[in-house]
UniProtKB/TrEMBL annotation:
Keywords: Isomerase. GO terms for biological process: glyoxylate metabolic process. It comes from Zapornia atra. One of its GO terms (molecular function) is hydroxypyruvate isomerase activity. PANTHER family: HYDROXYPYRUVATE ISOMERASE-RELATED, ISOMERASE. The keyword Isomerase applies. This is HYI isomerase. Residues 9-199 form the Xylose isomerase-like TIM barrel domain. It holds the Pfam family AP_endonuc_2.
Amino acid sequence: GDQEAGEMGLAAVPGRQAAFRQGLAAAVQYAQAVGCPRIHLMAGRVPLGADGAAVAGEMEATFIENLRYAADILAQEDMIGLVEPINNRITDPRYFLNTPYQAAAILEKVGRPNLKLQLDLFHCQIMDGNLSWNLETYFPLIGHIQIAQVPGRHEPDSPGELNFPYIFKLLESLGYTGYIGCEYAPKGDTLEGLGWLRSYWESRGVQHGGTSKAME
């Protein structure tokens, strides 16, 4: 969509189906060029001046229509589409998709195996908490995970509500083998801010490159 016009994705925005399809085609080209097999299909915002509850049904129907179209296109390229709930309490009051429950219900209605949940634990904590329960419950749907400390949205070892060593251990016990996206704003220098990862590796007996000393 047109970010300067206040758009933040188009997948659930009624009347913007043609623009969504054009954007999807461009995204597939970019993904092919960089070798990325996953694309975040952003739902978009409730239109300005509209009552969210009043347009919810139409927006969900549009979302489902566009997700099915996207799933068919992405299947041809062996790619996965992701939908991400974004909190409407702090980050974006008008964003349509807000909770893992809402996302899971829509994915069930869409019924395509190559569409998954992109679970950002920052948004999930703000909207619902219960991170262990949410991870365990929605694990079969999860295609990507993102992290940031709450409420500052900085590094995982910055002051905040979330215990990331516990969360990482839980993800390992669940069998998660995908990437974890660092969707946070560094408090200072980016490399200095990655000290939390070096410390975590050391606590697990892993060298600074992801190689286990035990394996060597």
